[in-house]
Amino acid sequence: MLAALTACASSSPSPRTASAPPPPSIRSEPQAPLVAQETVCSSALPCLRDGAALIDASPDEGIHALRGCLRCPDVSSATYRLLADVLRGEGRHEEARRVLLEGRQSFPRSPDLLVALGRAERRLGRVEAAIAAFGEAHRLRPQDELVESEYQRILARHGSPEQRSEAAVRPLIREASGRFQLEDFEGALEALNLALVRAGPHPRVRADVLHRMAVVELSRGRSGRALASSAEALEGEGLRSDQRADLALVRSEAFLMEERFREARSASLRCIQLRPEDPRGQANLAFASHRLGRKEEALSALQAAIEAGLPRLLTRRQFMALGEPVERMLEDADFATVIDLAWQRRP
Questions:
Q1: pLDDT exceeds cutoff 90 at 326
Q2: What is the reported pLDDT for 139?
Q3: How confident is the model over 222-234, as a mean pLDDT?
Q4: Better pLDDT: 258 or 45
Q5: How far apart are CA 228 and CA 263, in angstroms?
Q6: CA 213 to CA 21: how far, in whole Å?
Q7: Residue-wise pLDDT tens digits, 96-142
Q8: In this structure, what DSSP letter does residue 156 have?
Q9: Which long-range contacts (CB under 8 A, 24 or more apart) does 39-42 make?
Q10: CA 130 from centre of chain
């Protein structure tokens, strides 16, 4: 089903499968603008190139030129990183941090900026802020081994007991994800069982491992085991809303597999309540409602799933591979029309 298909798409956690505890928020204090308002720049790349050329001969001139580049309409995150690096080399660490914080405001999803910010915060002794920056970079680029390595090192040294537990579990989750992609499901479960031991008493870390175990079991058609693992995870206290959404999604699919459509509908609604932007919860609601004879609700949920990006998440071939739930829908011309229109420009 959808949880297993999307888990196969990447060996690393997606937003659906992110396992790190939520880091402290990265705050940027109000600061004076880095660049004078009258500075004018027409193109970022020549500006960046000219500024970089000045650095070796005169760092101060290079810094001044790079500050001007920040006013370019097409400025890139690389300009912020280079300017911060030059400032750091001159021992101006607070200024470097300010540059990176301002860059993050313009490029909030740049892992490179976040890694640079994490290093700057660490140099200044701001450990919690550094953990937050590295954690966010890791979630944005989970397959980057260098980012993961830095994140794990700072967690192991400065993190809370729960964060250190997460750091110990992370390599095993990576191993399990790789084995899952290779369809070595038993090997994936072995790695996850060891991860569960290393998770210790921390409910959120255990819930992440148990969720992955449920996904593997679901992909093997073992819905009962998937329900057992997800139920155990839900017993933990203090779970994040995204974890509860992940578990509700897995449970909805396990219930669909067992043709327990009322329970599948309830679990799908719970997933939607917790994470309304996730098309998979809406899709599972459509499947369950269709089998319950709630046609209008099923059509509405299917359309909501499509509008939320289901055709971007799955190709038409992958969607059709979901099997009986889709086949039954296609027997109804109203559903077939919606599906055809949604995937008409996609293979």
A1: yes
A2: 79
A3: 97
A4: 258
A5: 15
A6: 18
A7: 999 999 999 999 889 999 999 999 999 999 999 999 999 889 878 87
A8: H
A9: 39/67, 39/68, 39/71, 40/71, 41/68, 41/69, 41/71, 41/72, 41/73, 41/75, 42/72, 42/73
A10: 19
| Cα angle value 123/126/127 (rounded, 5°) | 95
The answer to whether 12 and 76 have CB atoms below 8 angstroms apart is no
Which pair of tokens denotes residue 197? 């031991």
Query: Please, what is the angle between helix 241-257 and helix 223-234, to 10°?
Result: 160
Neighbours of 46 (CB within 10 A): 12
Determine the Cα–Cα distance for residues 118 and 131; give it in Å rounded to an integer: 7
Instruction: Identify whether the C-beta of residue 115 lies closer than 8 Å to the C-beta of residue 100.
Output: no
111/187 Cα distance (integer angstroms):
31
Q: Which of 9-13, 86-90, 204-208 has the lowest mean pLDDT?
A: 9-13
CA atoms lying within 13 Å on the CB side of residue 312: 7
Which token pair is 183?
A: 């369809």
Q: Which two tokens stand for residue 42?
A: 């027409």
Mean of per-residue pLDDT scores for the chain: 86
Question: How many C-beta neighbours within 10 Å does residue 144 have?
Answer: 17
Q: What is the dihedral of CA 255, 261, 263, 267, to 10 degrees?
A: 80
